[in-house]
Amino acid sequence: MKGNEALAEAAIRAGCQAYFGYPITPQSEVLEYLAGEGRKRGMIVLQAESELASINMVFGGAGAGARVMTSSSSPGISLMQEGISYIACAELPCLIVNVNRGGPGLGTIQPSQGDYFQSVKGGGHGDYRLIVLAPSGVQEMADFVYDAFDLADKYRTPVLILADGALGQMMEKVEFREYVPADHIPPKPWATTGKGKGHPRTFITTLHMQPEKMEEVNRHLQAKFRTISENEVRYELVNTEDAEYVIVAYGLAARIAHRAVQLLRKEGIRVGLLRPITLWPYPSAVLQTLAPQLQGVLVVEMNSGQMVEDVRLAIEGRTPVHFYGRMGGIIPAPDEVVSALRSMIHTEVPEAAEAH
Amino acid sequence: MSQEITQDLTVEEQELLECVYAKPHTLTDTRFHYCPGCGHSVIHRVLMEVIEELDIQDKTIGIAPVGCSVFAYNYMNIDMQGTAHGRASAVATAVKRILPDRYVFSYQGDGDLAAIGTAETIHTCNRGENIMIVFINNAIYGMTGGQMAPTTLIGMKTSTSPTGRNVETGGFPIKMTEIVATLPGVYYVTRQSVHTPNAVRQLKKAFTKGFQYQKEKKGTCFIEVVSNCPSGWKMTPLQANEWLVENMFPFYPPGDIKVPK
To answer: What is the pTM of this model?
Structure first.
C-alpha cells in the first residue's frame, strides 16, 4: 500500500469524521482515497477551493466537536499557517499532514525535509507549538494517525504528521492494528454544537483585546506545551549502547542513516542512530545523556541543516556536531552518509567537515 | 423590563406595568460596543429576535467574522465561533456538514466577505452549502478606522481614498450579492437595510425566510444588509441614513434578487 493510502485508511479506522483538503502532489492520494473509500464508510470528505479554506474548515469542524483532518504538501501547508495559528490558539484538536516536497517556492514534487523549521518552530504567527510526529515508513504513516488523533484530543491541540514525498508514494506492507481510542480522551463541552436546552452557550474565539488576558491565554498554552514536552517525547535508538558516534536523523533520512550505521559497523566503527519520532517535543534529553560517551554527532537531513540547530542546542558544545544534507528533492544515498561520517572522524577541524 | 427603570417604583406600580417590548433572551446582557447609530446593533437584535421567535436558540451556531462585528459572540446568546478574517463561510461550511440538523449562519462585513474572503464566499455559495450568509455592507472598513472597502462607492472618500475612490487606481465597487445570485447552489438572495422601522421589519422577514429555507435544506441563503458607518463616513447617524438612501441605494438597490419560484 502507498504511504498516502495507508495514512488515509488509518484515518477512516481512527474514526475521523471529516476530511477537508485540496489536491497537491505528492499527497493527492489521501484526498482520492478518502473521496472513494472514506465517503463509502461514512466520512465527510470535502474538496475545498484552497488550502486556506481547508484549514478553516478544519477549524469549524473541530470547533463543532468532530474528529477532523486535512493533508497537503509544503506550499499548501504554507498557505494554511494562518489557520493553524488560530487552531492552536483556540485549542482545537485536529490532524494536519504535511507530505513534504522540495522548496522554497513552488519547488519540486520530490521528497524533502525542508519544512522542519516551519513545523517545529511555529510556522504561523504567535507563540505556539504543534506536536510533530515524523514517520519513517508506510507502517508508521498508518500508526501515527491513531496516535496523532489521540494526542490531539488529549491536549486539545493540533498535531502535525510530517512525512515526505517518498514516504507518501512508496509502497510497503502495512498492518492496520485495531483502533482502540485512548482512555484519556476527554469529552468536548467547549464544542459549539448548538447550546441545547438548559445548557450554557459556548463560543470559540482567539481574540483577547486586554493584554493581561492575552498573556493569560499564552501562559495557559505554554503550560500545556510544557506538559506535552514532559510526557510525549518519542524517539528510537539503534546501536547506541557502545557508540562513540551517533547519527541523528528522522523520517526517510533516518532509514538511510540506519543503513549507513550498518555499513559503518561492518568497518568496526562504533556508531549508533538516534531517530527522533516527535520532532516537537524534541528528544533533547536523550542527546544530553548520550553526549559524554560520544566523540561526535552527525546530523543527516534532506534540507540545508534545520534540525541540526536543535541538536546543537541539546548538545551545548559537549561534543562536535556535524551536518550532512541534500536539498531540492534529492535523497542522500547511504554511501554519502558513510563518507560524511568517515570524514568527520578523520578531520582535525570538525567544522570544516560540514558538507552542503 | 429593565430593573434600572422599575427599581424606583412600588410593587403595586410595577404590577400595573405591562411589558410590551423587551430585549430578546437570545441577546446577552453585554452592552454593544458599536458607535451610536451603527446598523450592527439593530441587525444583531433583529437576527436574535428571529432566532427567539423560531425557538432555535439551542440549535443555532453563528460564525463571527473579523471586522466591527468581531465581538458578535459577546452579544448573540447562542453557540458561536470567532474566525480568521474572511474565512467565516468556510468555517460555517464545516460546522453545517458536521451538524446538518443545526441552523448555521455567518455574519460578515464587506471587507471580510467581499475582499479577503471572496474565494470562500463564492465557493461556499457555489457548493450551495445549506447555511445563511449575512453580509453587512457599509462600504468602508470601520474597525481599522475607515479605509476603502471593496464596496466603497466611486468617488467616496475614505482614509485610503482621501480624494474619493478613483476607478483607475482603486477599481470598481463589487456587487457580491448579484454575483452569488448567479450561482445555482444559491436559493434565496435579498438586499435589505435597517435605516427605517419598515426596513427593519422587511429584514426580519428575510432572516425568517433564510432559516426556514435552511430547515428545508434548500441551499445557500444570502442576505445583504446595506448599512451605515456614521463614524467612518464622518456623519451624524441621521445624516448617514440619508446619505445611505441617496448614495448607496442607487448602486445597491434594496429588494429581492433571487427568490424561490
So the answer is: 0.95
